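COMPLEX REQUEST
Ligand: magnesium ion
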Amino acid sequence: TRSTRPQRMLKAVQKNATKGNPKSVISAIDYFCKHSEWAMNVGDEKGSILDSVVTEVNPSTVLELGTYCGYSTVRIARLLSPGTKLITLEFNPANAAVAKQIIAYAGLQDKVILVEGSSGDLIPQMKERFGITTFDFIFLDHWKDRYLPDIKLFEECGLLRKGSVLLADNVICPGTPEYLEYVRKSPRYESKYFPAHLEYTKVEDGLEKSVFLG
Ligand SMILES: O=c1[nH]cnc2c(O)cc(-c3ccc(F)cc3)cc12
Ligand SMILES: [Mg+2]
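STATUS: Structure written out below.
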């Protein structure tokens, strides 16, 4: 039967990237998406903004919502301090299976905890299952309709502390208007918009960085 796009992306990584070299894995995926098949990775333009925020925060506890094929997982994990791990949640088992292999190809498997399941179910389990007190950095990149309920879940579960940074992809395209209104209006967040474009296109999109004020 016909392969899937994530499976073809994995083949492109195995063919064109160097094992153990995260930068080459990132480049191979971007090349595949620019020249072969578009895919919903955060991409290199928004990815550079992601890199700069991760570097600035230098987080000890990291959560990613929406692994997909592991592109942003690799981008984040390659920047983490030794001994720091990131937890990434993926709803789709087939995507998780590809992501696991791409993360391993980059040599970052020891810095990543990949968990299959829905964010709504898993967020309340973070403390008990992974010994998390609060998250220093959260990357929201799963499903636009989950951004608002999930940020409220973070608050309810006491997973945010003064200075926790949330970075959200796709706030313009596909768009998360209710989430944007919430973080921009709430006195408990300091929000900033980073304009960019939808990955591998000229369509407007951007990242919203929101700092929890406690
Ligand atoms: O569903 C998505 N989850 C996470 N990231 C996404 C992302 O970066 C882009 C898109 C997307 C954007 C335009 C389009 F025509 C089709 C899909 C979806 C997701
Ligand atoms: Mg995205």
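REMARKS: The chain has a mean pLDDT of 98. Residues 18 and 24 are 6 Å apart (CA to CA).
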